[in-house]
Amino acid sequence: MYLLWNGTKKALVFVANGSEDTEVVATVDVLRRGGVDVKLCSVEKNDKKPITCANNIQLVPDLHIDDVQGQQFDAVIVPGGSKGTEQIASCKKAGALLINHYKTNKLVAAICAGPIALSTHLYDADENARKHDITCYPETVNTLKNKFKSVKFDAPVVYSEINNHHLITSQGPATAIEFALKILTHLTDARKAEEIRKQLLA
């Protein structure tokens, strides 16, 4: 079990074999620099064994999906990578966590193909989820265009708030830093995000 403590903002990043390397690592790095307690959570059946990302980088998860049932985080994040997204989309326990956090007005975020997992789990669970504007990896548009209000490409990151339900989406590896900074802004404040942006020369 993973317990929340001391007021520090907490974020959970789902990972699976095939998750997109840059999107996972950049997001975790930026948020940890900003003082957020970020945990990698495997949805694989092999407990907390290392997962192999889309480009063969291996990551050791901090937690397994079984460890976090009933837990609350300030943000739940879904990276892309087609195979990793498929695993997260098919994981009922991940879906239950996403639904709970969305319904309790916590931040839900996804990048690249990650919004497919959001649509899988949230579309029928809460009608508010269908009202969001999102962005995503271009090749996933046909899958997502009828699941959300609109799919936009005029900005690398889209923040959408519907009836106090919060969603952040982004397009792919090259937008991962901006994605993470937007999440950091939401969890902390613009000043902290700007401080980290300057550290990164972003």
Structure commentary:
With 202 residues, the chain is an alpha/beta fold. The chain has a single domain, classed as 3-Layer(aba) Sandwich (Rossmann fold). It has 7 helices and 11 strands. It has a 7-stranded mixed sheet, sandwiched between helices. Strands 3-4 form a two-stranded antiparallel sheet. Strand 10 (157-162) and strand 11 form a beta hairpin. Helix 3 (92-103) packs across helix 4 (114-122). The longest helix is centred in the first third of the chain and has 13 residues, at 21-33. Mean pLDDT is 96; it is low at 1-5.
The gist of it:
With 202 residues, the protein is α/β, with parallel strands linked by helices. It contains seven helices and eleven strands.
Coarse morphology = globular
Average pLDDT score: 96
CATH top level class name = Alpha Beta
Main sheet? 7 strands, mixed
Structural class: alpha/beta
Write the layout of secondary structure elements.
Elements: E1 10-15, H1 21-33, E2 37-42, E3 51-52, E4 58-59, E5 63-64, E6 75-78, H2 82-90, H3 92-103, E7 107-111, H4 114-122, E8 133-134, H5 141-144, E9 150-151, E10 157-162, E11 165-170, H6 176-187, H7 190-200
Parallel strand pairs: 1-2, 1-6, 2-5, 6-7, 7-11, 8-9
Antiparallel strand pairs: 3-4, 10-11
From the structure above, extract its key features:
disordered N terminus, two-stranded antiparallel sheet, alpha/beta
